[in-house]
Structure formats: structure tokens, C-alpha cells
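User: Some background: our group keeps a shared notebook of sequences we're curious about, and every so often someone picks one and asks for a predicted structure to add to the entry. Today it's my turn. The entry only has the sequence so far, pasted here. Could you supply the structure so I can complete it?
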Amino acid sequence: MINTFNNLKIQFPLEQCNKLYLKNLKGLIDNSIDASSRIAAFRFDLRFPKGHLDQSDKVITKFFESLKSQLKAKEVKTKKENKRVYPNNLRYAWIRERDTSGNDHFHCVIMVNKDAYGILGNFGNEEGNMAARIKKAWCSALGSPGLVIDGLVHFSKNGTYYLDKNSEDKKEQEASLFYRLSYFAKNDTKVYGTGKRSFGCSRS
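Assistant: Of course. Here's the predicted structure to add to the notebook entry:
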């Protein structure tokens, strides 16, 4: 069995993976490091509340639109304070999966300019850091601004990765992140044949 793609290690045998997803994930990393000499990548999961009716692709689209809007607002605020603004250069990927209960959920990664956002911050914060913005964006996407989000947004263990274009360890950093994201490409547990997309990512 081959557990590599383009000479990079992956979590599952290649025949059990979607090669197009792997190609897009590699492109995502390449485009991110081209846009920012240093990037931070954050892994997290998004779940629907029990009984939530709208589990369409529109929800994940709304999530990223809300997150983009928040980052833009932060840049405007920083500029008004006469502070240096680092472009966030946000890029992302997501997959839809279905667990044994029949509920869909999303595994996500965002990649940003490390000079703009280097950490998620305290997961319990309601505002002021990237973790809070992610939670707020999911509430907005679900159409419930006051929703208790505990349990619906999960920040992955050891889910923060850093890549530095000028580091001697760049190849190792990239390989480590790609290995983690190769999970996104496994065919098992994907939601195929329902009319819903199973994968999405930034295109440039």
C-alpha cells in the first residue's frame, strides 16, 4: 500500500483517498506560503445543534463569510488606531462528514498570515481573539447569534501549525501540516450522493 502523495506522507493508503482533495490541499499550503512568508494554520471542527434543519452548503459558506467580515473589521479598527495592519491572507479548507448518529459535521482548517494572527487565544473568550471569532462566525452561520456554542466548536488537540518560508525546517513543517490535513481526503465517512458538497477550499 502507498501511504504517500507527491512524496509526502499521508494518514491512509492512497487508494482510500480522494486524490483531487489531496492535490487541492497541497495547493492550499503552497498558495498560503506564497502569500505570506510565515503562516499559522488552525484546525477545528464545527457541529450542528441537535435538530438543526438547515445543514446545506450555505451554512459553511456563511461561516467563512462571517469570519472574513470579522477579520476585515479588525483591520479597519487597527488602521483607525494608527497601528500597522498586516493582511490576514485568509485561506481555508473544509470537509463534511457524517457520524454514526446521522448528523453532519465539518472538519476545517484556516491558514493566515502569522504576523496578523499567530495564536487562537483562550478558547473560552467571547471576543478579542481568533477562537472567539470562529465561534461567533459559527453562531452567525447557524442564524443564532445568542446560541450557546459549547460543544459545537471544537479546537483540535495540537491543532496549530506554523510554516516559515525562510526556515531551514520548511520542508518538515510543510510535511507535518500536509500529513495532518491528509485526513480530509479519506473517502470513508464522506457524505457522497446527497447533493451536498463533501469538500471545499480556497481557490487561490
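Suggested note for the entry: The two ends are 32 Å apart (CA to CA). Strands lie at 4-5, 8-9, 38-47, 91-98, 104-113, 153-164, 199-201.
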